[in-house]
Design goal:
By secondary structure, the protein is an all-beta fold. The protein has one helix at about 10, and strands at about 40, 50, 55-60, 65-70, 75-80, 90, 100, 110-115, 120-125, 130-135, 135-140, 145-150, 170, 175-185, 190-200, 205-210, 215-220, 225-230, 235-240, 245-250, 255-260, 265-270, 280, 290-295, 300, 310-315, 325-330, 335-340, 355, 365, 370-375, 380-385. It contains 1 helix and 32 strands.
């Protein structure tokens, strides 16, 4: 499964994007909205890499990892004699205040408290995972201790053996763990009649369970919504209760669908950005909440790190340079656009709240306290949660 197996929750939110959007671990995004007017520059010093945890910011430079508050104040330092952190295999674990570090010249991983920098545990294993299948059982581990929180027997929900990660998956959000598995197989090996069971992520208490017929597929496409897709329609279910939120015919002509909480979605007609003249925000039943024009002279790319109450996107003049980029926000209620950061006003004359260029390919970093925005000029900014 590779390194991404350690952060399995990330995949749950990327399965329905038909066009790659800039951003990272959408599942870690702030649970509410953002205080857009509160965007401010933060001083992180020089760094090779940066990311966020539930309690703050971390940076990697050379042989040192620094932990900082959301405002940029230094809290702790981690170093290891004769070694350096592997930037490609150092990550904050989703939904927990734990930093997992692979050190060069050392096997396995070391877990640290992202709040204090204290070492929590270590393992010589080449891979680490929070959720998965172990000896035929579903296992969810506590990132703070590396011990199982709870286990469950997939046979209870009719999952067809063998119980392997090729056929059985556990997807995580901050509150829910979702088990998906086929209850039988066709002669060609295709999984059929999918069983889905939702659990409280921390306790393992079952929340609800259902079995879907045929080759219907199920994805977690936002922090609170599960989508069941058949040949004819999409059905949106509340992730924690399993209650139906709405349904849509699959026959829509759009090529780009960015799912949002509650069965809503941002729709564009083409996967080629230059071919779109507008974007539409639609309700679970397909009704249009608002429409926003897309200027011919701009390229707009949505971020998967957008919190529930706003859409974040990078914007640059079409054909512009890397340093010409901006960060904008669309209000989910109205479609109103706010220019948060950029080197100059947009083509519409929108002044940036913060004079800092943002590359179109910038990876935003979301946490419960807000969003870290890397600038194209080596600086960084924070948008606090509202």
């Amino acid at each position: 499964m590779g390194w991404n197996r350690a952060v399995r929750a990330v995949a749950a939110f990327g399965l329905v994007l038909l066009l790659a959007a800039c951003g990272g671990a959408a599942g870690s995004r702030p649970p509410g909205g953002l205080e857009l007017s509160g965007i401010r520059a933060v001083e992180l010093g020089a760094f090779d890499d940066a990311g966020v945890t539930d309690s703050g910011i971390y940076t990697v430079r050379g042989t040192t990892i620094l932990g900082r508050s959301p405002g940029g104040e230094q809290r702790w330092t981690i170093q290891r004699a004769g070694s350096a952190p592997d930037r490609q295999r150092t990550t904050a674990l989703p939904f927990s205040d734990v930093l997992l570090v692979r050190w060069t010249n050392s096997p396995g991983f070391v877990a640290y408290s992202a709040e204090t920098g204290a070492e929590l545990w270590s393992t010589a294993a080449d891979l680490w995972w929070e959720s998965g299948i172990e000896e035929g059982r579903v296992v969810l581990r506590d990132p703070a201790t590396n011990r199982p929180r709870w286990t469950a027997d997939p046979a209870r929900w009719g999952c067809a053996p063998p119980f392997t990660e090729d056929d059985l998956s556990v997807l995580l959000t901050r509150e829910v763990a979702l088990l998906r598995c086929p209850t039988r197989f066709a002669q060609d090996g295709t999984g059929l009649d999918l069983a889905v069971a939702a659990f409280d992520r921390l306790t393992g208490a079952e929340l609800w369970a259902r079995t879907f017929t045929g080759t219907d597929t199920v994805v977690v496409d936002s922090s609170d919504t599960l989508t069941l897709k058949s040949d004819a329609e999409r059905v949106f279910l509340a992730l924690r209760s399993g209650e139906e939120l709405g349904r849509q015919a699959v026959g829509e002509k759009s090529r780009y669908r960015f799912a949002r909480p509650g069965g809503t979605a941002l729709i564009m007609d083409s996967s080629v950005l230059a071919q779109n003249t507008e974007m539409r925000f639609v309700e679970p039943d397909g009704g249009v909440r608002w429409t926003a024009p897309l200027d011919a002279g701009e390229e707009v790319l949505m971020s998967t790190e957008s919190p529930d109450g706003v859409l974040l996107a990078t914007l640059r003049p079409r054909g512009g340079a890397r340093d010409d980029g901006s960060l904008v926000a669309y209000d989910l209620r109205t479609g109103e656009r706010t220019h948060l950061a950029g080197p100059r006003p947009t083509a519409r004359g929108e002044e940036p709240a913060l004079a800092m260029p943002v590359a179109q390919t910038a990876r935003l970093h979301a946490a419960p306290w807000g969003v870290l925005v890397p600038g194209a000029d080596g600086r960084a900014a924070v948008i606090p949660s509202g």
